[in-house]
Amino acid sequence: MATVAEREDREPEPDDLLAVGEVARRTGVVVSALHYYETLGLISSIRTPTNQRRYRRHMIRRISLVVIAKRLGIPLATVATLLAPLPMDRMPTRAEWQRISKAWKRTLQERRRILEALEHELTGCIGCGCLSMKACRLLNPDDELSREGPGARRVE
C-alpha cells in the first residue's frame, strides 16, 4: 500500500492509502461525514503511526454508493446491510460485487415502485388522510387507510 508521497511517480492503485482530505475532495463528502460513516461500519480506515486516518482508494466506491443511496432516500442502516457482505480489509472482487448487486437491485426496484406510485398518484389520493382531493373521498373515505398505519398508504 503506497502512501501519498510514494504514489507521485506511478499510476494509482486500488489499495493506495489516501488521506481523509483527499477522499473528501474526491467524493464530495465532508470529513465529518466520512468519520460518521466509519462509526456506522459503512467504510473503514487504517491508522498511521501518528494516528492519522488513511483510506484505501477502493473505499471511494463504497462512499460513492452511500452518497447515491442517500440521494435516493435509502436509509444508511439499509446501506450498511447491503454493503455488509463485502470485505473491508481488501478490495472486493468482481464476483463479490455481483453477489451484493442482487440485494441492491431488489432495494432499487422497491424504491422505483414507490416513486412510480407517487408519480401516478400525485394529483390523486395518496392515502395520507388529508381528504383534500375528490379522489380521497372515494379511495379513502373517512380516512379508513389510517388503520393500516401512518403516512401515504396508497404510495407506500
TrEMBL record:
Q: Which residues form a coiled coil?
A: none
Specify the superkingdom.
Answer: Bacteria
Residue ranges annotated for the HTH merR-type domain, each copy included: 17-85
| PROSITE patterns noted in UniProt | HTH_MERR_2
SUPFAM superfamilies named in the record: Putative DNA-binding domain
Q: Which residues cross the membrane?
A: 63-84
Report if keyword Metal-binding is assigned: yes
SMART domains annotated for this entry?
Answer: HTH_MERR
The alphabetical list of record keywords is: 2Fe-2S, DNA-binding, Iron, Iron-sulfur, Membrane, Metal-binding, Transmembrane, Transmembrane helix
Respond yes or no to whether keyword Iron-sulfur is given for this record. Answer: yes
Tell me the InterPro entries matching this sequence: DNA-bd_dom_put_sf, MerR-type_HTH_dom, MerR_fam, Redox-sen_tscrpt-act_SoxR
Q: Which PANTHER family match?
A: REDOX-CYCLING DRUG-SENSING TRANSCRIPTIONAL ACTIVATOR SOXR, REDOX-SENSITIVE TRANSCRIPTIONAL ACTIVATOR SOXR
- NCBIfam families named among the record's database cross-references: SoxR (TIGR01950)
- Listed name of the protein: Redox-sensitive transcriptional activator SoxR
- Lineage, opening ranks: Bacteria, Bacillati, Actinomycetota, Actinomycetes, Mycobacteriales
Q: Which gene encodes it?
A: soxR
